[in-house]
Each structure stands twice: as C-alpha cells, then as structure tokens.
C-alpha cells in the first residue's frame, strides 16, 4: 500500500504524506538551484579564460608599442637629462624593467598600492640597487582609500568601472577591494630623493584626481 493510499485511509499518515510532498518539492527546487549555479560557474570560468586571454593579448600589444617607441622616449629622456623616473601605478614593475632593458641607468621610484602586485614589484626592485618601491597610491590628500581590484590587476582603480566599459573590456571587471594608503607627491618626494630632473610616468585610472604641485618638481 502506497503513501497516498495510507494518507487517505489513516489520517495520521496524511500529515506525513503532505510533509513528504513538501520535502520532495524543496528537493527539486534545490536541485534546480544547484544546476543553475553549476551553469553560472561554467559560464564565469569561460568568461575568466576569455578575459585572461584578452588581457594577455592587450599586454603583448602594449609591449610591442613600447618597443616601437622606445628609442624616441629614451632619447628624449637623455636629451632632458632625466636622472629620476617616478613610476606611478607600477603594478609589478613592467615599465621600469622596460626602461632598464632600453638602457636607462638612472634612479627609479615606483609606487603601487595593491598588495599582490607590490609583492612582485618588491622582488624585482631587490635585484636593482637604483630602483626603490613604495606601497602607496598618490592622490590629492594624505588619507586611505578603497581601490577596486580588477580581473586584470593592472586595470585596478580607485574609481568604479562603468558597465559599458566592462562589457567592452572584461579584464577591468572588479573582483575585490583593498584599503590602501594615499599620499601627496609634493609632500612625499623631498624625503625620497634629491633628484631634480624628473620623468613622471602615470598609469592610473584615477590620475585626474591627483594634485601635482609645482614645487614638487621645481
């Protein structure tokens, strides 16, 4: 005799049958949710692979353009007598390594606020006695700020990315946040170096918010 017949013939079984029906419905719903979650996970994994591939291709294009413009930039720096490069938004030190590869032997000071990127930057600096790094963001005030970590860490920013921009460039999608220290360059620089012929490289999405006072470069 099945549950349905027992429920009809014996009232105590009716409540058990109804509970069994509810549990089976909840089980079906849970299985449907698990299936949807698995499909979403698979979709995100594909998106992640595509974003990483796109980021790698973009880095390759940027490096190719840098290589093409290297002679002009290095010649300009030599002509200006630059004895210091401020590498703002250094990430893992790609620009500084490129300068060294091109023959620049002057002082380099790199600034990178993200912990993971800074760890790699610090390891690179340890191999070069004339290259130092600081775990800082540069900005308008001495403060702390929340930086949005992007899938492609080089695209991380104090600013939020727009939905349309993420659709065009998936690598800038935010995957986390980190609280970072922010310092003013004009107040920080005198304690770091006495160099006065400075080449300033800025690779940040929030550079428009920075305050560069003339006395920092004078």
Automatic annotation (TrEMBL):
Recorded hits in SUPFAM superfamilies, A to Z, give: S-adenosyl-L-methionine-dependent methyltransferases
Q: Which residues form a coiled coil?
A: 13-65
Q: Keyword Coiled coil: yes or no?
A: yes
Which key words are in the record?
Coiled coil
Domain of life of the source: Bacteria
Query: Which InterPro entries has this protein been placed in?
Result: FkbM_Methyltransferase, FkbM_mtfrase, SAM-dependent_MTases_sf
Respond yes or no to whether keyword Membrane is given for this record: no
Positions of the Methyltransferase FkbM domain: 87-205
Output the Gene Ontology terms for molecular function: O-methyltransferase activity
Which PANTHER family does the record cross-reference, listed alphabetically? NODULATION PROTEIN, SLL1456 PROTEIN-RELATED
Q: Know the name of this protein? A: Methyltransferase FkbM domain-containing protein
**Source species of the chain:** Methyloceanibacter marginalis
